[in-house]
Design brief:
Helix content: 25-40%
Shape: globular
Radius of gyration: 28 Å
Strand content: 15-25%
């Protein structure tokens, strides 16, 4: 029998040390429990018990609420299940580092898997021996329940704090939207600076509010309301008017019926701060809350449009669906689902002569409830179909603009449409990829870059989209010589090994393509 299945023996009679693996985890709310500190305590524990640490499983910056996202713990459990563990003991700092599972039985289940394989789990900083005794079992069960309860209490406190900040008029995340900007203020409400896209506050005492943006954007928002409320123009007609006048939205793209509708239905333009439209507490399923659960603060921001204009726009939008029965509204939704194959607020708002997404929310309590009534489950549809269609439509424009800018600096560039490859000055090749943004189940933003291993371009120009996948966030210029993997996974911050290749624009690429005249040759 392989040694990984023997009962735990700290040391044998010959003095040979038993083999152990350590599992360390650092969560965002417990920075004081750094993995280094955990490992230091575990190392001292191992030395006292005659254990040799032969393997480390580390989850850095991972919540302990669920197994999802904790790749190291999943690998540990897989190694144990597949009988690939070359150790007898697993050392963990304490019960909470193993996990703050909301169901204490889940924590016990993963430990039981190890025990069944003949591998014991030891908690090095706890005051009890995990030896299966009655006292250890009782204390461990209490610790597991306390670990889960801590997260529940922390979640409630954080939510209460966020709600209080909302009532005080502070912004809690999210893009400001067209016509608005994020203003950073200090603890005395004195303005500090305007945050640009991708910038965030760094000091805990600083806060963020919304302020009116550039005058041309503010005037465009007010124009949208005048056209809709006074002239009774439709959203599609307003979008056409703005596009004909050369007005671009905040993503630098043309207006659509849906984007105009979003301006007409968002209370922030009337100065109202709204929070808790959706919930994602304790890493559980994301849900859309009914309006009675929203946290609202009127007059939190300087209004761009008068409250009367906003309420008039809301009445017009609501009136459009009052004539329809519930059955008729659901029939419209069913027909749209059959046409598009998926449903979302933006898809609904793009359709002329159909109730808006806000009308469905008001009539049925939430969009999810309306989806359920027509037999649509958005959780089985990963919503990438519509996004990918949009990004494919953007691709030719991005390539054309890149080629034009390369030629503008005097370089010669060829575009091979079949191979999707740029050849610059007959010196190097480059490919262009658009990288869509997606949100993990844990709520984090991620991007996946697929490098073309068949064409092997010298440089991959990765165009990273923002959270909405409507606008460009930044660019990565990835040289093949430094990229070994076929896929690269990006987070919002990636460390110098990847972010050294990140740029706000492609100006550096164009400088690289420019040819310089040499007057004399040595």
């Amino acid at each position: 029998m392989r040694h990984g299945r023997r009962p735990h023996e700290p040391s044998n009679s010959t003095g040979t040390k038993s083999r152990a693996a350590q599992y360390v985890r650092m969560s965002t709310e417990h920075q004081k429990y750094s993995t280094e500190n955990q490992s230091d305590t575990i190392t001292k524990y191992a030395a006292r018990r005659g254990l040799t640490i032969v393997r480390t499983y580390e989850d850095a910056g991972k919540s302990g609420l669920r197994l999802e996202g904790r790749e190291a713990l999943k690998q540990l459990i897989a190694d144990v299940r597949n009988q690939q563990a070359d150790f007898d003991t697993i050392l963990v700092y304490d019960v909470s580092r193993w996990g703050r599972f909301q169901d204490a039985d889940e924590s016990a289940y993963y430990e039981f898997i190890c025990k069944e394989a003949g591998i014991t789990v030891q908690y090095c900083a706890e005051q009890f021996e995990n030896d299966g005794s009655l006292s250890a079992t009782i204390i461990k069960s209490m610790k597991r329940a306390m670990a889960g309860e801590y997260s529940r209490e922390l979640s409630a406190k954080v939510f209460a704090g966020q709600c209080r900040l909302i009532t005080l008029g502070f912004r809690q995340g999210g893009a400001p939207g067209y016509g608005l900007r994020r203003q950073l203020i200090d603890e005395h409400r004195k303005p500090k600076t305007t945050l640009e896209r991708g910038e965030y506050k760094s000091l805990q005492t600083d806060r963020v509010i919304l302020i009116p943006g550039p005058p041309d954007e503010v005037n465009a928002v007010r124009r949208i309301y005048r056209l809709f409320v006074v002239q009774l123009r439709s959203e599609a007609d307003i979008a056409t008017t703005l596009n004909n006048d050369g007005v671009m939205n905040d993503a630098g793209r043309s207006w659509t019926r849906g984007t105009v509708h979003q301006v007409l239905t968002n209370e922030k333009y009337a100065g109202t701060n709204v929070y808790n439209r959706t919930s994602f507490k304790l890493k559980q399923k994301r849900v859309a809350n009914t309006p009675d659960m929203w946290v609202r603060s009127e007059g939190a921001f300087e209004a761009i449009v008068d409250a009367d204009y906003f309420q008039a726009a809301r009445r017009i939008i609501e009136e459009r669906s009052k004539r329809l029965t519930d059955t008729e509204m659901l029939d419209h939704l069913t027909a749209l689902l059959g046409q598009k194959g998926a449903l979302s607020g933006l898809i609904i708002d793009e359709i002329e002569n159909m109730p808006s997404s806000s009308a469905y929310r008001n009539r049925f309590g939430s969009l999810l409830r309306a989806y359920q009534l027509v037999g649509y489950d958005p959780h089985r549809d990963y919503r990438y179909v519509e996004t990918n269609r949009t990004l494919r439509a953007m691709f030719p424009g991005i390539v054309s603009e890149t080629i034009a800018n390369i030629e503008r600096v005097g370089a010669i560039v060829r575009w091979d449409e079949n191979r999707a490859l740029l050849t610059v000055n007959d010196e190097f090749t480059a490919s262009v990829v658009i990288v869509r943004c997606f949100r993990t189940q844990a709520g984090f933003l991620r991007w996946k870059i697929r490098l073309d291993t068949s064409m092997r371009p010298d440089i991959t120009i990765a165009v990273r989209m923002d959270e909405s996948n409507q606008g460009i966030m930044d660019y990565y210029l990835l040289p093949r010589i430094d990229m070994n993997a076929a896929r690269i996974r990006l987070a919002e911050n990636n460390g110098v090994h990847l972010d050294a290749y990140r740029f706000e624009s492609l100006d550096q690429l164009f400088e690289l393509c420019a040819r310089q005249s040499i007057r004399f040759a040595a």
